[in-house]
Amino acid sequence: MTKKRLTGAIYATAVILALSACSGSTPAPSTSSSATTAPLLTLGTVVDVPSYDPADLRYGGEFPQLWAPVYDTLLKLDPDGGVSENLATEWSYNDDNTVLTMTLRDDVTFTDGAVFDASAVKANLEHFIAGSGTDRYLADSIASVDVVDEYEVAISLSEPDPVLEYYLAQSLGAVGSPEALSSESIKLEPVGSGPYVLDTADTLRGDQYVFTRNEDYWNADDFPFDKLVVKVYSDVNARLNALTSGQIQGARLNVSLMDQATASGLELYPNRVDWIGLNIMDRDGVIVPELADVRVRQAINSVFDREGMLENIDLGQGTVTEQIVGEASSAYDADLNETYEFDVDAAKDLMEDAGYADGFTVPMMDYSRYKTYQPYVEQAFAEINIAIDWIPVTDATAVEESISGNFPILIMSQAAPAQSWDALNVAYQSSYNAFDTVDPEFTALMETAQSASGDEQEKAYRDANAWLVDNAWFAPWYYLDLIYATSDDIALEVQAGSAGPQLRYYAPAE
Amino acid sequence: MVLYLLKRLASAIVLLVLVTTATFAVMYSSSENVVRSLVGENATPEQLAQRTSELGLDRPLWEQFASWAGKAVTGDFGISYFTSEPVVVAVTNRLPATLSLVITSMIVLSIVSAVLGTLAAIRTGGALDRTLQVVTELFSSVPKFWLALILVIAFALTVPIFPATGFVPLGEDPLGWAVAIFLPVMAIVLGELRVTSMVRGAVSDELSKDYVRTLRARGLKNSEILFRNVLRNAAPPWLTLMSMKFVALLGGTLVIEKVFALPGLGSLATNAALSGDVPVLLGVVVATVLIIVVVYLVFDLVQSWLNPKVRLQ
């Protein structure tokens, strides 16, 4: 190559690099190249939306960030975990808590022109009940939905449901246009009444979802951004890099990346969402007879160094607990966290009293999700001569195997929400009571909590929680912080016990 | 030529049938787990059965495959279990990122390996030759994931010249596309620099042959000998290697896609395999087999053009 040609090549390269730098210090290559002057909020999520059919929506984690822009809900979640009015302005139960009557807004239309009214709510709830989505169980208590008048609907329940209002602020309460519910196209092209409309032209499923403002939305003040882009990042390092470089303004991070995130000037919002520990499901001793003895389960609770595990595994991001209810739950009692001290000798004494000083063997899932915790469980169990037979399971089979009744003890992380019923139900009617263990005392407490209200209900929750701790149906280790990070141009209010912040709580930083 | 193409088409069809049948058989053995993933752990047996029936997974395996194959020949590859997207749409939406990555990497790698390998062969034992050998071995020994992260840290975060993540379609913004694809392509090219050594070896071998000495003795210029004879004769093994690299890259871009959050076929296929999204996985398999067949055909045709002694029949 001649000197002239080489020089020309260098100049050409420099021009290209200069042009790329001039396109912005934080180029967003996945958005439209057309300029926009409206404020933009760009978020990163871990999850992808499976379908925009309202019957298939999911309320856990960050899923709502992908559907809540287009689907408004009957009620909305407050930062403290409570609910308040949204599409429904008033609601009340009858005397025995089996009929919930809701008064609806009369000024809402869907983006296809259909009217939001009681008939639309009835159609949506019946559509949800007829479906087989992951959240279908949220509607288990609904027996029928009746139109009282144009803007009043009555939801009749087969039994009292202490968390129905909470669910109506989630996927169960998401309302799509009744005229679109039966069409196949709604799975990809949602028709709702939410603050935004999905821009299908700029959206690439599994990669990014682009939403533009719904100009007819009744509560635009709650959503200050004209445009919303939600990008899917399965790799946590890619998420951090996108945050650091300014391509996105909010995303979840792992605790191991907190130092890097802080050094990059990101704002961090730790939120206590899950508890992690053991679910001792075989309380009747079906597979492992020894587990039927409460002393064995209490010994298991005493053999874990919870503080040490939290520090070593999750870098101290969380707080030790022995309860499965959330700290924000009315059933939570800080004193219960002193029930089981880390005391191997005491654990051995319990095992000896129970007649199992020689221990036993228990099969457990060898599952990639909890691989980090398995050595600690193995070591702790070894202290009291419990041997573990690790059975490999794949990601595809893990859910089925967890509830199959094949595994007496699970390592699991589970939501620790502010809603007491939701948390305690893991031990009651949930699939994670895989051996269908029934205890009359616990059942009586849960039945009281289900049908009561006010102070009587709260007392029942607290008593049920205390009962679970005393009878060691679980061996929780700690609440785990989920870390949400934002750029410094965003102000965020997280909701207690919620992994994915609601869109209405993002705002430009002042 | 026509007969040759027909033979290649026939073998492509046989390959497609074999690969899709094997994939189908392996993945459909765990259909209940897939349905459980779709309906969640709180679904009742009735809801599980309802979704199983909706997806047609309660039919015999042969019937499911026959149904899929019957629709596939009409271009209907079904719907993704997990995104509700038509498989054809999902795959075609992902092709631009993967093909951009693979084709651009191949072009850059071809140019870099040909130029540097030839220069090193011409000056065997010289400073360039020794430097290239060290550099190519160094980069080829480093995991692509690490290379990619270093490039991101250096040129997207520390000195923000390029974007850290994302893809811009070529048709939407050519300059944006080039800027977005630069770091991913560099990560791949640097990791495959060992091809340069292969070129160096092939060219060096040709330069040592008698016909080259004969041509020099006849008074031909070195450049003429190089471009008209030596490179042409050294090309076939390099072409064979490049065709294999192309196929390997087609299936091996997952790590790069993850680091740069590129919406490509690699991540689509991996997610489909892990979740049991059989329709999508089959769609990716078919697309990949078709691309591989076309790639090998193109390379074979180029080989025959370079060397008339290679007969297609």
Quantity of strands of chain A, as a count: 19
The CATH architecture category of the largest domain in chain B equals: Orthogonal Bundle
Major sheet summary line of chain B:
none
**Average pLDDT, all residues of chain A:** 91
Percentage of residues in strands of chain B: under 5%
* Distance, first to last CA of chain A: 56 Å
CATH level 1 class label of the largest domain in chain B: Mainly Alpha
Q: Find the CATH superfamily of the largest domain in chain B.
A: MetI-like
Distance from N terminus to C terminus of chain B (CA atoms, Å) equals 8 Å
Topology:
The complex is a heterodimer of chains A (510) and B (313).
Chain A: H1 3-22, E1 40-45, H2 64-67, E2 75-77, E3 83-85, E4 88-93, E5 99-104, H3 118-130, E6 142-149, E7 152-157, H4 164-168, E8 196-198, E9 208-213, E10 227-232, H5 236-244, E11 250-253, H6 258-263, E12 267-280, H7 294-302, H8 306-314, E13 318-320, H9 344-354, E14 360-366, H10 374-383, E15 386-392, H11 395-402, E16 409-415, H12 420-424, H13 440-451, H14 454-470, E17 474-486, E18 490-492, E19 506-508
Parallel strand pairs in A: 1-10, 14-15
Antiparallel strand pairs in A: 2-3, 4-5, 5-7, 6-7, 8-9, 9-10, 11-17, 12-16, 12-17, 13-17, 18-19
Chain B: H1 2-27, H2 31-39, H3 45-54, H4 61-72, H5 87-122, H6 127-141, H7 144-158, H8 174-191, H9 194-207, H10 210-217, H11 222-251, H12 254-260, H13 265-275, H14 278-306
